[in-house]
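BUG: 3D viewer hangs when loading the predicted structure for this chain

Environment: internal workstation, default settings.
Expected: structure renders.
Actual: progress bar stalls at 90%.

Input used:
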Amino acid sequence: MVCVLVVEFLLLKHTPFFWDAVSKSGRASWIYAHGLSEFIVPTELNSGHPPLWVGLLAVFWTIFNKALWSSRLLLLLVNIGVVWQIIVLCKNNFLKTVSALAVFLVCLEPTFLAQTTNLNNDMLLLFFTLLALNSLIKSKSVLFTLASTGLLFTNLRGIYIVIAIAIIHVIYARFKLIEIKKSIYFGYLFAVLTFAVFCYFQYEKLGWFIISQNENYNEHRQSVGLKQILTNIVVYVKIFLEYGRFIIAIFLLPLLFKYLKDKTRNDVRIDRMIVAFFVFVLVYFLGMVPFSNPFGDRYFMICYLLAIVLLVNLIEYYNVRKKIVIYTLIVFMFVIGHFWIYPATLSQSWDSSLAYLNIYNVEEQMEHYINSRGIKPSDIGTRINLNSRDYSEFKMLAETDRYAQFNIETNKFILLSNIENQTKDEELNYVITHWKLVKTYSQLGVFMSLYQKE
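Structure tokens produced before the viewer hung:
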């Protein structure tokens, strides 16, 4: 698997930052520009997330060079760490009769695979999550302290994860699913105290902590009404079934029901995975569904991985017939999950499958066409993130190379793509219906279309 990650690094070493990762690059650039002397990013750039990932990016740029390849070198090291922790998780929790090859099935999960290519902080968060869970199971206090602290300093979702780990710890101890060592409690104390110190210094500098005062991010931290909660519940369930993951639910639910119903059967490794899976699902549900922050598939990677480990164990536990057929079907669904493209009117978590990689070839073709026709980018309105190349590709754009803001009334041309989710359905339909299609390029469902006002 490490060889696969190295090949991936070599193939994608010049691939730009994408989606939410672009904003991380912007914060890392600020830290880099200040010579690593300051890690608390100003409010105009700050979403509230702690600075560990962006700080590491700035460090790598300082050591090597501010380039895409050095950014991806950092990601490669994190990816290797995550795979290592997945192997440890499987080794400690797979039934003895499970083949070692089952680890590859876990690593084929579509969103996990997509995130190994994305320069966001989610893989670092997943590394610390797995490290915390593995260290808890094996009662390794030093590693648990490192993991808990890393969780809180990587992403605000790390707070939910630490809470989930603490709940899992209580249940594991209550039902004697792990060996209890009092020294591991120091990990919680150290992590919380160091994070509290960071919050104090951030408050002293910016006047706020955790909840950003940047209006672009503050609106995502608000509580919502019943109607939006119901919508969020539907989205929450949908996310767990996307990109071929529904196949896991089809096989897992009946086996899980059978296991829970059978009081005479139990296995500590299966019990640990059941507890961890349901606690993470519940904590994420309570921490995200009642709020306005849109959540994406990548948020729940730990849940997907635990579900696969649990399914493999239950298949082996009950010696399910035609196991090869089941595993083959799961692999097939995981592969075609990367071709799971919604209609342009539906929002999609584009960084949650490898489908997003198709945009770069499409974008190159479209811009070559625009240049060949002598069309000025300033005459083209779009919501595609093309004006952030100073952060996504480290290319400084001249004003003449910048695209105009999307405005149906003033734009001469409109550039549409299903790779962005901001254009409203009525705007999309109006342009398609009333404007002239000049040129379109597509690749495996990802498209970019240029329209001219008639």
